[in-house]
Amino acid sequence: MNKEAQPWVLALSASADELHCLLSNGFDRFVHARGECPGAADEPTLPGQLTALLREAQVGWLRLQLQPALDLHSWEVALQRFCSTLAVSRHLGGAADPADVALAGVEPLDDDDAVWWLHAAPQQGSAAALGAQAAGRPLLLVSAQLPVVQAQALRRALGRQWRGGLWLSQAAARVAAQLALPRAAWRLYGDARAAEVASGGPPQRRLVTALKLDMVDSTGLTERWGAERYALRYAGLHGLCREQVEAHGGHLDDPRGNDGWMAYFGLSSGHEDAAAQAVLAGEAVLRLAPTLGFEMRGGVATGRLALRDGLAFGNEVNLAARLQAHAQPGALLVSAGTAALLGPGIEREEIGVLTVRGMVEPQRAFRVLAVSEVHAAARARPLQGCLVGRQREFAELVDTWRDVQRRRRGAWRCIIGEPGIGKSRLLREFDRSLQATLAAPVRLLLAGRAELQTSAFAALALGLQASVFEALAERLRDSRAPGANAPETDAALLRQRLLDDLLAAVTARARLEPVCVIVDDAHWLDPSTLEFIERLRRDSAELPLLLVVALRDDAASLACGLSVDDALALRALDQADSLELLASLSAGEPLSERLQQSIAARAGGNPLYLEETARMVRARPDAAELAERAIPLTLDELLVARLEGLGAALPLARLAAVLGGEFPAALWNEVLAEPDEWVAGARRGANWQRLLASGLVVAEGVPPLQTLRFKHALIRDAAYQSLWANDRRRLHAIVARVIERIVERDDDTLGAALQLRAHHLAEAGELEAASQAWMQAARQAAAAAADREALALARRALALLAQLPDTPALRQQALQLHLLEAARCIALDGYGAASVEAAYLRAAALCSDAPDATMRTRVELGLEACYAMRGDLARARALAEAAVRATGWQPNLRLALQARWAWINVVFHQGHLGEALEMADQCLARYEPALHQPRAVQDPAIMCLCYSAWGLFERGCAGLALLRVQRLLELARRLDHAFSHAVAHGFAASVLLFRGEHELGLEQAEEAVRRCAAADFRAWLAHARVVRGRLWAGLGDARAGLAEMEQGLALWTATGARITAATYLAFQAEACLMLGQPDEALRRLLQAHEIALRHGEHYHEAELLRLQGWARWLLRRDEADANTAQTLLQRGLALARTQGRLGFVLRGALTLGRVDVECGEAARAIVRLKDALDAVPDHHGSSDARQAQECLGDWQARVAR
């Protein structure tokens, strides 16, 4: 064992007033000494023998073993007098008494919970340390006297720098020295090595940048130098690589072979500049390697990698290696993903597209040319869109500046908000307004940087350098930070003098003219710059100096001295502002309205999220999918950093992400109570309070109806995507089990809960159970008349079944789903739609395995309806007759009714009115409302009542038709079935139109339109609009009515329907006749007649002939035209008699009678019309009968004269 790599041990114990000390390296050197035990308020001192050995051995690493009674004293301060760079960890002796353990205020240092943290008085240290020791955790105790901002700077920096096998005590000593913290301000209990913690971290996915470094011609170097010399120089090169990688926050992997290394950045904690740091490290190694005699080349790639036990896995690791292989000696190539994250400080050029071995897609690559400015290495995220939603805040800044100038007194404005909300954009706009004034004021622009937080005055030095205070920047550069060996009091004094001089220079300038100091990203300021700002604010109260400071809202409480009272809090943009911002970004082809809406909904009003998502999707063929699911690579680091700011609460955020963007608090509480190891680890301690306090998850409402939601969908997606797939599946399965229990307890939650459970089962990989749950949810939605939702759910179930092995049971499940799919397509698209036929044909292919023999009949009835609506009546009738033969009235009465209704539908349209009415009466006589199926598209009794009411009017029974309409509406109300309601009102409007009751008919038509539009029943919406248009025409507005009928017919045919189109064209022709356009009427009637004959649709043919005859009579020019018109009228009358359509016979007799009267044949007209009226005694309540009676009276009077 190498004794140089082991810590020394100093054991201190007390007896009476005597201090016993034993110092040993654990091998061959030790000293035992006694000294005076310090009093409670005394500074501790160590015996001279012990301090002499400390100096002689130059001890750098020490474990301090203490009795708890000696823990209060600052032993580290006493030791530092002799060993200034000493790394010390305390270890308390003796077993912990539970009564002495106190963990109040203790929280994890970062998200892996490997180290605990406490910001409190030293008196609390022993009790907390005993608890940490019992839990096997090191504890970093930071004195309450240290300002919060400096304490948090120590915490963040330690989280970044503790890696690569470094011991925690060594990392803490290094970071504290960088921050110039007094040694009495902190102490460490226990110790741990970074590699040990990394191996115990949970599996996760995160954005990581991989750097592959490779030496050129290692074989040749070995031959030239020899093996021993090569080995020595290789060790130096490895040290150089490790030094540069770790200096830039990376982790160097074990050597790969004899000539290359892989390094990872962003591996252990969230950084917003990991890609830039990787490139800076690579560039430094390539630049410095020649000093050791080596030439290097490298490749860099960035992507979301899978992490486990400190190792990274993913394509980007391979891509970095492939890019390195393509690089010329001395060159560093970076991927397109990495290049997108770099700032202007790294000069680069695109070298084109490379064909990379092992990867399907060619890869864009860039060559790094130079690092011109280290501090601009990372890509800045300035918002490019117009300033929207910030007019009030901008005006307040401008007004404050004017007030400072006028009153010559200092002012302070603080701007807070979440990352990306537009703080920097607002500051930039305000700075532009200052520069645009005639006399531009003195401005000092400062910005915090995460990588400079441990460098004293770093942010101030950069800001001064680019201002009128450049001489002060020189002073900062020339002033050397106190040396490591300088006494602490001297270092503090030198720093204080420097700070006083800087403040004096700025305030002196403010006495001459107004000064504006703008500070961005104050949460990343180094403690010294922060103190400068705090004191500048106090010292400039009576001077014309404005301080404008912006910081993140989650850091507001950490900014000691930076008052956030009356801060300008930037809130999320509303929907209108979000869309305005997106519109302002449109360069070239604008984003579609739908895409903009999708981006706005997901970004949650965050301008940076809006801009980066818009940039990601622009000109991409898969833009819609990207906008809904993908995370822009340029945002990934920011989102991960925000999540990792949660520390130990991060696993809880990941668990919440599994539940979705929004979920009931009751469900969350039940999931947290699950006896699962993963869940138990996430819920421990105060993690939930910490998650809520972060603002990333917000609670709305009050229990038991409280809901929880992520503030931004992108935050939720980032948390979800950071989980390993195995963990996702495990957690989804847990949530599905919890939902199942909730459903069993509470039926009221059934609809939404079924869908939610199905989703979680699918994500858990339990595909068969998920498909069954989706089908159950689809049936539930269908029963609730939510047809579009039911269709989507059924298709989700079918998509899952397609991924499972083909078995008879699953084929039957698919058959049921296709039938459900077809039914929903009928309701939404119409019977004749291609989607309906496709669903039924897929179902037909599965019927051979069906144990239920009626299943094929159901499928064939569906196809019959489809073909009937398309006008293929012969094919439809063959299917309907086969269904009737296959179904007696018993044992399946419901199916028998469906089969006979299908037959009625076909024969009615073919013109066989008597047969259709007779079968409809048989069906209605056997029907009971209990036979109704809520999830069915249509009810057979409803449809029989609709068509028989229509047919009864045509038969000349207007009274019976009206009674049947009343029965129809009553049954629809009783069934309370959305489709039945819609169809019933549409047919009621039709019958009232025929009867001439236009006002009442219009009420029914409007109700039908309303219901069909609300439920998206497109086919029956088309019918309702046609009837409404015809009613408008009957009420005197023929022009508007004609336009409405034309739109209705277009919608009808768009559903694939061809049947009834001839009737709708006849309605249009009647409106044309009202408008005095018999030529246009005739054109439409000829088109209608051709359609009817082509499809064998004869139920309205008598009317088509009658209307053609009348149009031709009005257009007649000679005797031949008159004869043609009369022939058509006679044909129509004869066909109506043959079909038993006595209502049409009355219309034909009335129209032909008018022609006869004009020809002087009134007596013949009277006989014909009287016979027609006498034949329809139940028709006398119709307008047709009233017109006939009026004409009959006029004609009889004419004959009598």
Please name the defining characteristics of this protein.
1201 residues, alpha/beta, Alpha-Beta Plaits, Rossmann fold, 8-stranded mixed sheet, 5-stranded mixed sheet, 50 helices, 25 strands, elongated
3D structure, described in words:
The protein has 1201 residues and is α/β, with parallel strands linked by helices. It has 50 helices and 25 strands. Strands 10, 11, 12, 13, 14, 15, 16 and 17 form an eight-stranded mixed β-sheet that branches. A five-stranded mixed β-sheet has the order 3-2-1-4-5. It has a five-stranded parallel β-sheet with strand order 19-20-21-18-22, with helices on both faces. The termini are far apart. About 1% of the residues have low confidence.
Estimated radius of gyration: 43 Å
Number of domains: 8
The rough form would be described as: elongated
Distance between termini? 139 Å
Task: Count the DSSP helices.
Answer: 50
Tally of DSSP β-strands: 25
- Structure classification: alpha/beta
Largest sheet: 8 strands, mixed
Give the quaternary arrangement of the chains: single chain
Mean pLDDT: 86
What share of residues is helical?
A: 55-70%
Return residue spans where pLDDT drops below 50 for at least 5 consecutive residues: 196-200, 480-486
**How much beta, percentage-wise?**
5-15%
In short:
The protein is α/β, with parallel strands linked by helices and 1201 residues long. Helices cover 57% and strands 12% of the residues. Helix 28 packs antiparallel against helix 29 and helix 48 packs parallel to helix 50.
